[in-house]
Design brief:
Elements (H helix, E strand, L loop, with lengths): L12 H11 L3 H12 L12 E3 L1 H10 L4 H7 L1 H4 L4 H4 L2 H22 L1 E3 L4 E2 L11 H8 L3 H14 L3 H5 L3 H9 L4 H15 L1
Helix pairs in contact: 1-9, 2-12, 11-12
């Protein structure tokens, strides 16, 4: 599977409405989350899936799998280097270069350590998105923004996050979605984005 898929599909209001109705939440809430997580875009201007390869998650997964970080670093030096926008022509393109390099050492762990699409769902959560493998998850994220939206809908339903969105409990959502880091800052961004789309 190629990682740099060039298929793009802009979301319509009806697409947002369909998923919002299925979840019992507002379109404005979904748009707010998309704008904060992926800048409202599932693909770069060059057509590559919006991703963030998270080196800290990759290192943690390597340790859990009993694999050598030193060996991974030697095999995939680009993955362990800083994001180089200038060399690769943009942030998303630079992240793809890191991911593709990490895949040379351990493809499955690299895909799991990456946050995908306009909602930046971690690959390690593929099962909560209804996918049988992280490969399927990555492929669907590369197909269209509509697929990314549908994966997000499945994810927040199965992860028990819909209740926070329904209640506009941005603090609770921020903590559950992003962990304990900068909860107030993230919640504030969500609130402001929601107000903008409301």
């Amino acid at each position: 599977m190629a990682l740099a898929v060039t298929a793009q599909s802009s979301l319509s209001e009806a697409d947002y409405r369909k998923v919002a109705d299925e979840l019992g939440i507002e379109v404005a809430a979904i748009k707010a989350l998309a704008s904060i997580e992926g800048g409202g875009h599932g693909f770069s201007a060059g057509g590559k899936t919006t991703i963030n390869f998270d080196l800290s998650v990759y290192k943690r997964l390597l340790r859990s799998a009993g694999k050598s970080e030193a060996a991974a670093r030697k095999a995939s030096p680009i993955a362990f280097a800083a994001v180089n926008r200038a060399r690769y022509g943009g942030y998303v393109e630079a992240q793809h270069a890191r991911l593709e390099d990490a895949c040379r050492f351990d493809r499955e762990l690299a895909l799991k350590a990456t946050f995908w699409g306009m909602f930046q769902i971690g690959g390690f959560n593929y099962h909560l998105c209804g996918c049988e493998s992280v490969e399927e998850f990555a492929r669907l994220n590369g197909e269209s923004e509509l697929q990314q939206l549908e994966l997000f809908g499945r994810f927040i339903k199965r992860a028990g996050l819909v209740k926070y969105v329904k209640a506009h409990n941005w603090q609770g959502f921020a903590r559950a979605y992003n962990g304990g880091r900068q909860v107030s800052t993230y919640a504030g961004k969500l609130q402001r984005a929601y107000n903008r789309f409301k």
